[in-house]
TrEMBL record:
Protein name in the entry: Transferase
Family: Belongs to the plant acyltransferase family.
Alphabetized InterPro entries for the sequence: CAT-like_dom_sf (IPR023213)
Signal peptide positions on this chain: none
Keyword Iron-sulfur: no
Keywords: Acyltransferase, Transferase
Domain of life of the native organism: Eukaryota
GO molecular-function terms, A-Z: acyltransferase activity
Pfam families: Transferase
Length: 372
């Protein structure tokens, strides 16, 4: 007799938590730690950030045979890489493939990055909604359209068309498009502002980057914890000012310029920088920089997190691979979450903006030209 999916999931989860034992506990906050700094723990509007529950799971089994597994994990304990490794190991346990599991290590990261005195620094949260209504919508970008974006940045961004190394990644190309549309929407709200105020306004992209793969040699995926840094790309309004060029050429130039900014920011997170983070105040200085932009009325930040290329669609619990992986609606504005489609032939973007901004963003002609 075939086992009930509910029983299989519950039993395998229990077995998995014996290996991932910190996830079976509860959090007791003693002082501001590095993981709490990253999570913005003092703001209850962030779903789950202030919860003492480290891990929560909800399983829905439908009469038609479908199963939905919802998982919440505290960012105080794990980042996206750790979360996906946990899901894959749970799935392997459920289907009886224990031999495919490499035991998680909770000692690697603390040994590389021991807790440090933050000298009283308290970061500003990215949760600055101020009572605004937040809307989250999904946009699908197929690979053919993303390839077109990459080609455009290649043609306008450099002259060595045959140099494949000059192509941006899919995430870089798509992030630049979303950033450009977001800036257009925001600048539209500033039409009534004085030219002086508008001229100094800065737009920034904050991109989470997994540092495990940036180290030499790279850390294994079973190194559990928070092991990421943020890449920050900035663009002044003057970078996108009108000039005498043809409008089409101007649009291409502005887009490729944003691609280059994002690519350069992400490339700066390399083995050398990771080593500096271990021995200097580089991370603290980065967080102070982000805080300055958050609190400045002259800066607007757009936050990206990418799950692209993470093997989340390989999580087979014994009934086949998932047909759809998605994120719940975010309570935070100006956030973009990217993930591969189940077929691997595109990227789905979950964009969280204010209701006012979303109405203009989703109808932006440049966005519509590349979405399905």
């Amino acid at each position: 007799m075939e086992a009930c999916p509910h029983d299989v999931l519950k039993k395998s989860l229990s077995e998995t938590l014996t290996r991932y034992y910190p996830l079976a506990g509860r959090i007791k906050t003693i002082a501001l730690s590095l993981t709490e700094l990253l999570a913005g723990a003092d703001h209850p509007a962030a779903s789950g950030f202030n919860s003492k529950v480290v891990l929560a799971v909800q399983v829905n089994i439908f009469d038609g045979g479908g199963i939905v597994i919802g998982v919440h994990i505290s960012h105080k304990i794990a980042d996206a890489s750790s979360f996906i490794t946990f899901i894959k190991d749970w799935a392997a346990t459920a289907r009886g493939a224990i031999e495919q599991i490499k035991s998680p290590s909770f000692e690697d990261l603390p040994s590389l990055f021991p807790q440090r005195d933050l000298m009283g620094f308290k970061p500003e949260s990215i949760i600055t909604n101020r009572g605004e209504k937040i809307v989250a919508k999904k946009f699908l970008f197929r690979d053919s359209k993303i390839a077109e974006l990459k080609k455009r940045s290649m043609i306008t961004g450099c002259h060595h068309v045959d140099d494949v190394q000059e192509y941006p990644t899919r995430v870089e190309a798509l992030s630049a498009l979303i950033w450009r549309c977001f800036m257009d929407v925001n600048q539209g709200k500033e039409e009534g502002a004085s030219s002086a105020a508008a001229g100094v306004r800065v737009y920034g992209v904050v991109h989470g980057v997994n540092m495990r793969t940036r180290m030499v040699p790279p850390l294994p995926t079973n190194s559990i914890g928070n092991m990421y840094n943020v890449a920050i790309a900035l663009s002044d309004v003057s970078d996108n000012a009108d000039d005498d060029d043809d409008q089409g050429e101007q649009d291409y130039h502005q887009y490729s310029n944003l691609v280059a900014k994002i690519r350069d920011a992400i490339k700066r997170i390399d083995d050398k920088q990771v080593r500096e983070l271990q021995t200097t105040d580089a991370f603290l200085n980065c967080m102070k920089q982000v805080t300055e932009y958050i609190t400045s009325s002259q800066a607007v930040l757009l936050y990206f997190t990418s799950w692209c290329r993470f093997p989340i669609y390989e999580a087979d619990f014994g009934w086949g691979k998932p047909i759809w992986v998605t994120m719940c609606k975010s309570p935070i504005k100006n956030v973009v979450w990217l993930v591969d489609t189940s077929s691997g032939e595109g990227i789905e973007a979950l964009v969280s903006l204010t209701k006012e901004d979303m109405a203009k963003f989703e109808s932006h002609e440049k966005l519509l030209a590349f979405t399905s």
